[in-house]
Amino acid sequence: MFKTVLEAPDMTVTVNGVETPAWNGETVAGILMRVPNAGRTTAISGTPRLPYCQMGVCFDCLAIIDGVASSQGCLVPARPGMRIESQRGAREIA
Known about the structure:
Layout: E1 11-15, E2 18-22, H1 28-34, E3 62-65, E4 68-72, E5 83-86
Parallel strand pairs: 1-5
Antiparallel strand pairs: 1-2, 3-4, 3-5
């Protein structure tokens, strides 16, 4: 869900160590698209990527969310105090 920036944020989350405003109903992927240089990079070439499909198919929204790597940001709703870090390189396999 995209919100107009005129509305006051409902919460703050931390993205790569920086407090960032967020709104109820927003996903981690939506937040990553607003924060400069917060997207992931590919494993082989290091090419920067941003969330693309927004439905869990492309894996371009992978992030480290509250310490859990390879989380699909498009499927995770924002929560107050959430800690999000950019994921660099290949996704981890459990």
